[in-house]
Amino acid sequence: MDQEATIRDRWLGALSYLSILVFIPLFATGKSPFLTRHCRQGFAIFCLEVLGLFLLYIIDSTFGVIPFLGAVVMVLVRLAMFLGFLVMSTLGFSKAMFGESWRVPYLDDWAERLPIH
């Protein structure tokens, strides 16, 4: 458990993983390294969600026009994306609430390069 994580930092860190609410901790003042790390990862997940919605729109415009197969493909792709984002957000939320530092697999390297201070 991170000794520097205050209750405020834990709650703001947890908010970082709740989609659009990532902007609340991003604009908070006096960020600790704990909160900065969770803000970066939460923002990276949010960017991935926006990109995923854009890709869903493109896939729906192409495969969605196929009568039966298009609907099946779209349901499966939406379900996979929803479950993936739900798992990442739930894990990040719980790790932040417990005051633990967590690395999102494959996404953490990109998140570390974000200029969030």
Tell me what the structure shows.
This protein is mainly alpha-helical and 117 residues long. The protein has one domain. Helix content is 66%, strand content 0%. The chain contains 5 helices and no strands. The chain has helices at 7-15, 23-26, 33-62, 69-97, 108-112. The chain is elongated. It starts with 6 loop residues before the first helix and ends in a 5-residue tail after the last helix. The model has no long low-confidence stretch (mean pLDDT 90).
Task: Summarize the model shown.
With 117 residues, the chain is mainly alpha-helical. 66% of the residues lie in helices and 0% in strands.
Keywords, please?
mainly alpha
Tell the overall outline. Answer: elongated
The description of the largest β-sheet is: none
H and E string: HHHHH
In the predicted model, the low-confidence regions spanning at least 5 consecutive residues are none
Helix content: 55-70%
**Count of helical segments?**
5
N- and C-termini, Cα separation: 22 Å
Extended strand count: 0
Report the structural category: mainly alpha
Return the domain count.
1
Radius of gyration from the CA trace?
A: 16 Å
How much of the residues is beta strand, in percent?
Answer: under 5%
Task: Summarize the helices and strands and which ones pair or pack.
Elements: H1 7-15, H2 23-26, H3 33-62, H4 69-97, H5 108-112
Helix pairs in contact: 1-3, 1-4, 3-4
